[in-house]
Amino acid sequence: MHCGNFIHRPASRRQLLKGCAMGFGGVALKALMAEQANAAIHNPLDPKIPHFVPKAKNVIFLYMDGGPSQVDTFDYKPHLEKYHGQDPRDAIGELAPTQFDNIGKVLKSQWDFKQRGESGNWVSDLFPHLASDDIIDELAFVKSMTSKFSEHTFANYFLHTGSPFQGRPSMGAWLGYGLGTENENLPGFVVLNGGLIPPGGLDCFGSGFLPASYQGSVFLPQDQPIANIKPGEATADLQKEKLDLIRQLDQHALEASDQDPAVEAAIQNYETAFRMQTSVPDLMDLAGESEVVKKMYGLDADFKNTRTFGLQCLLARRLVQRGVRFIELTCPSGNGDRWDQHKNLFDGHTKNCKTVDQPIAALIRDLRILGLLESTLIVFAGEFGRTPFAQGTDGRDHNPFGFTIWMAGGGVKGGACVGETDEWGYKAVKDRYEIHDLHATMLHLLGVEHTKSTFRFSGRDMRLTDVHGHLIEGILS
Amino acid sequence: MIRGYLILPILGLLLAANGGVFAAAQDSQEEFFEKKIRPVLAEKCFKCHSAEAEKLKGSLQLDHLQHLLEGGDTGPAIVPGKVDESLLIESILYGNEDLQMPPKEKLSDEIVNDFKTWIASGAYWPEEKVPARGEKDESGKFDLQKRFQEHWSWRPVEKPELPSIEKTDWPGNPIDHFILSQIEKAGLAPADEAEKETWLRRVNFDLIGLPPTPDEIEQFRKDKSTDAHAKVVDRLLASPHFGEKWARHWMDLVRYADTYGHEFDYPIPHAHEYRDYLIRAYNQDVPYDLFIKEHIAGDLLDTPRRNSEKHFAESPIGTGFWFFHEATHAPTDVLANEADIMDNQIDVFGKSFLGLTVSCARCHDHKFDAISTADYYAMTAYLQSSARQEVLLDENGIRAKAKSNQEKIKKEADQNLTGLLPAASSPIESETALYEDFRSGEIPAGWSTTGLAFTGTGEKAGIRFDKDDPISVPGTIDSGVYGRKRIGTLRSPTFEITGDRIHILLKANKGTVKLVIDNYQMNSFHQLLFRGSYMKQIETEGGFKWITMTGNLDKYIGHKAYLEFRDDSDGSMTIDQIRFSNGGNAPPLPAERNETPSLQLSEETLTSITEGEKLTQNWPPLRRALAMGKGTPENAHVYIRGSHRSLGDEVPRRFLEALGGEEGDRLNLANQVASSANPLTARVMVNRIWHHLFGRGIVPTVDDFGPMGQPASHPELLDWLASDFVENGWSVKQQIRQIVLSSTYRQSAKSNSSVDPAKLATVDPDNVLLSSMPVRRLTAEAIRDSILSVSGRFDDEMFGNPVPTHRTAFMTGRGARDSGPLDGAGRRSIYGAVYRNFLSPFMLTFDTPSPFGPKGRRNISNVPAQALVLLNDPFVAEQSSLWGKHAVESKEPVPDRIRNMYLSGLGREPSQSELASVETFLTSRGVETEKAWADFAHVLFNTKEFIFLN
User: Reduced to 3 DSSP states, what percent helix, strand and coil does chain A have, rounded to the nearest 5?
Assistant: First the structure.
């Protein structure tokens, strides 16, 4: 349950921020970022001054839960055709342990690959919409991403928090902590849940040791997208009267606590909460969207999951328009257990791609039309990739040693492609990157220097990137 | 140049010794080096590993042979002539996941081969100036003694004199001298005493987590005696609710949870027994030093503390805290998994008892504190030398008494047993290697048991208290001698897995065999990657059979493991022998195990068996708790840079060097932690108590007394309290008592009117000096519990299985359990389940921590979600209706009803103007309707007074 988390900002804070803007930036920023003891008084979500001029203001993180197969989507490996059906231990050599340890034969892709757009980047037939000329050259591929974990939960926490363990702040929480929010009436970190909460649960979106105000709010694509947003009273007036009485009776608390700022802030919360009761339904109300737009996102598609993900993408755009900092989309259920095709690879990947392809292309197009693409960073990533050899006969196992992610939008060099896996698409061998590098790059594009965004916990200045992280220079515009 | 001439003949010798792999003249060596080796080093390595490196990584320089030979943190980079022993080759081969260089990109096979050739041929390096060692940041260099001497918290506790003060009539007890002295030094003055109602509400929540009832308020108001406050405190300390409040604080430290989290959120067995143990321990005021000993080594105490009512051993339950870590199934690297779990265990241990971030020393010596990596791995040695067990909580010793009575019967019956009796198995000729055959019929040295089931059958057959299988087989370990209803575990010593098969000759009825590899326990839930390591419901249909554990065992050859035989049901297991092999089958049955002698038992013997069986009837239901147990003593290896693939020095089980470094077993460790000579233990605990009573510790970073923690605001007070704590027999209740009876704690939240607010804002803006009582928000538990208590829904039942969490539409995903009731069955929050992946949204909103590690100080957030919960959550609405209904049913006059609701909800009477406002509100909504009163109840829940303490 993760409703929005805003407190009214006292005027004095605004003045302080103005002061920052006028030049005491460094010192004041440090004060803002380091002093958790004051969280109860100061609004932790006040917009903050970035470390340097940001390229993007918002992030849409397309989380491909379960791990898409790089060799069936973007990482074309003719070698697999040549050695198809052979024992990978002979063809590839020594194999690292896999999650299921059920090693089959070298498995070629069942989809055709073509080079697309001016960039000539490879895309398989699984993504006809992303492959279209006006989209493909917006994307920048990292084909040499690596993770450290073969298990979903470890890898999910790692992708989301930079640590394999439960209870660490998610990247959306770090961004909220570093940058604050631009809309007081919506949470700064929204998870549009397509139906599946990834293994590891809500801690993938948690605030960990950061204040709770930064945690992700899970929105379901339904009338009441978050818990407790709908008033119990029959009419708004009835609730208003209650709120008036509460405010009146609260004078005693203020007086008895010697005007304690935390009590004052708690009183102000009711104002924000009251406004959220309207701003959230307003977000969900698509009456103002044209039929053309809805169709573009696939809201009329035959395939139910395309409709669900289309709605998620459209809502993501609406959240960007409302200044929400970090938006994560999770996958709809029913596609053969997310992207986790240990078997039935053909069927599962076909459905998963059908679910996300058209809506994502529409999202990119729509943001471009609205002039928002250049200030929105889009990231497409799973927690790991899949093996180039079969698990059993018709599936692929987890593979953290080399997989493909892509980014688009603000600050990203469309059409770029960095890194390579070996000729099997098994392990990254050229310009290897790790999840920490993805995090460093994301923060960088939003104007945050990853080594400087720290929070004192457990006797250490903690970072999203721990002690790691390098920019993925090749995809920066 | 001279040196060059000297080196050459030696190189020549080396080459000769290597069979002339690269028998080349110096100039071709030089050419090879300059063309193939140096450019690669310069391009790929020097950025991080040379004198020019901005920041030298791993203390390794690759810009001269001398530096290569000296090596870095993980040892010499190369061994000339020995390719396989050269770490440089290991790292560029990319085989070791933790040692892959260059980090971005594997070198081509051709280059890798060049390096192999270069090293094989002796690692030629031309004569040249040795570059200086790179700039190393020496400021953070590890010097344990220096750090030990420089940081305050390592110094012994010394009881200070009371400081002098001016306002001598203010202190109520010594604590106040310390507080007042600093207030006066700052030119401030303490606040007036709080109103009686305010103090009563404060102390009620602080001690039992619940608001005072209207009657209690009335009573206290009327009590004009000088010890009125003390009477209240004594009543609250004696309340069973006290333990429910204070146990929860401790649960935050030990990351208490009912499930393991991860993909399927499997249950942690018997977790709630530990929670109940804590509640009882706090209620009985178990001395804190004993409480610590029970946590660290309660299973090893000579005379464990017994439950005051049911007399089972309490002490071992304390050790359950080690096992509330999260846990995954199917880790691809079981050693790494073990290392991560130990990290978490050491983190909890270090912070909870000592306020030390010991686990920061996992990969390198602590960056700031006097804790070395060797200290960290010495702690892992204790863990590796321990096992996990599920101890029996034998209520009233019924099962043990039955056993001693059965022993008497058996002794006599065994003497009278005649006829053709079964014999022990004779030795087997086999390719398989015998691990253990229990020939003596006694539990062998190094083996251990949990529960009262498993017993050695001796060298001669005897009776079993089981009519269907009445005669035991000598030379076995048997869980059914004292009846089928007995449950228990037999545990082997730790051994190295040497082959892919373990053959066990046994007779079983619903038995379980579990191979615990590198302390991995989750194979009881899921066998992926661990096939063959867990066999349950083993059924041999009356006779002896060989069973073979195999499956994935081949993966774990070379790993350490121990075997567990578990009889968890009304069946039994008899183990004859255990053999290991790599490939191959179990040998044939020994001749003696092929036949079951048909033995006619005398009437007398049959009567004895029946008599003994009867002693196992009508037992109370089985209760068990998760606990630590003795394992096989082991030293640990330092994992260099935290990687189990790079083994460093061996370290024994010993305490932190800064605290004496004494070697010993886990009980010895417990005694060293729970010692008044330990400078940290008492300080850390009194500081925690202080934190819970004032919202801020004397050391605000309650879990970190190291250099990165914040310093003490009142260091002398901290030491006075710590000394006093020890002098008073480590009594937690006594500490709490004197603090809440101090003048400091009795202050109003309003600062003294004689103090200039501007001065206060400058001198002490955060009220660190406590010149007034800090305003605090209630914890999630207190908020929910007080809602239940005022609405009338409160159920004061204590202990037992957790109440399942109520699941909302937003709580989906793997491992989801059935939803529990919206109101949590009216039980206190401490009894609500803590499902790691499905934590209660209500509780999370008010900052209950996610149970991943020690959390002595919760976040206190202040967010609109809290307003939304109290305004719109169905639980709050339901309780409002209930409270409203009760108010109407009281049939009291309207003003009295309002007054009573104010008293129960906010602990005070409403003012005249409040009364008027409320009456107007009620009138507009229909003052005789339950709805109107429910609405008013809802309003009270939403007032800030309801969730804040003054």
Answer: 40, 15, 45
**Is there a domain that residue A237 lies in?**
no
Residues counted in chain B: 950
- B358 and chain A in contact, CB less than 8 A: no
User: Which tokens hold the place of A13?
Assistant: 């804070």
Q: A167 vs B842: CB contact, 8 Å cut-off?
A: no
Spatial contact of A115 and A131, defined as CB atoms under 8 Å apart: no
Beta bridge partners of B432: none
- Could you tell me the residue range of the domain that residue A60 belongs to? 11-225+278-475
Lowest mean pLDDT among A94-103, A315-324, B327-336, B483-492: A94-103
B865 touches chain A (CB under 8 A): yes
**The two structure tokens encoding residue A3:** 């409703």
Residue type, B671: N
Residues 685-704 of B with CB under 8 A from A: 700-701, 703-704
* DSSP classification of residue B829: G
Best of A217, A237, A255, A260 to substitute, by most chain B Cβ atoms within 10 angstroms, is A260
Residue B85 vs residues B29, B79, B90, B566: alpha-carbon distances, Å:
22, 6, 8, 44
Taking CB atoms and an 8 Å limit, are B859 and A265 in contact across chains? Answer: no
Residue with token string 């070697």: B663
Q: Are A242 and A222 in contact (CB under 8 A)?
A: no
Q: Are A22 and A411 in contact (CB under 8 A)?
A: no
- Choose among B710, B673, B708: nearest CA to B369: B708
A158: in domain: yes
ipTM higher than threshold 0.90: no
Cβ distance B360 to A460 less than 8 Å, yes or no, reads yes
**CATH code, domain with A120:** 3.40.720.10
Strand partners, B193: B747
What are the boundaries of each domain within chain B?
Answer: 2-133, 146-239+680-776, 417-612, 871-949
Question: What is the residue-averaged pLDDT of chain A?
Answer: 87
| Nearest residue on chain B to A275, alpha-carbon basis | B864
Domain membership flag for residue A30: yes
- CA B729, B735, B736 angle in degrees (round to 5)? 140
**Quick check: B358 and B379 in contact, CB under 8 A?**
yes
Inter-helix orientation angle A25-34/A11-19, to 10° = 140
Point out which residues pair with B559 in neighbouring strands. none
Asked whether the beta carbons of A272 and A8 are under 8 A apart, the reply is yes
pLDDT at B636: 97
pLDDT at residue A9 above 50?
A: no
For chain B, what percentages of helix, strand and coil (3-state, to nearest 5) are there? 40, 10, 45
The H or E element that residue B13 is part of is: helix B2-17
Alpha-carbon torsion (B320, B322, B325, B331), positive or negative: negative
- Neighbouring residues of B841: CB distance < 8 A, sequence distance ≥ 6: A1, A2, A227, B808, B810, B811, B869
CATH number of the domain located at residue range(s) B417-612 in this protein: 2.60.120.430
Number of structural domains, chain A? 1
Q: Which residue has the tokens 């082959």?
A: B499
Does A26 reside within a domain? Answer: yes
pLDDT of residue A283: 92
| Residue B104 in contact with partner chain A when CB distance is under 8 A | yes
d(CA A375, CA A317): 12
Vertex B187: Cα angle to B185 and B189 (nearest 5): 100
Local structure of B529: helix, strand or coil: coil
Interface probe with B: pick from A7, A63, A149, A153, most Cβ of B within 10 Å: A153
Tell me whether residues B360 and A458 touch, CB distance under 8 A.
yes
Q: What is the pLDDT of residues A445-466, one digit of tens each?
A: 999 999 999 998 777 789 999 9
Distance, CA of B788 to CA of B826 (rounded, Å): 6
Contact of B775 with B949, CB cutoff 8 Å: yes
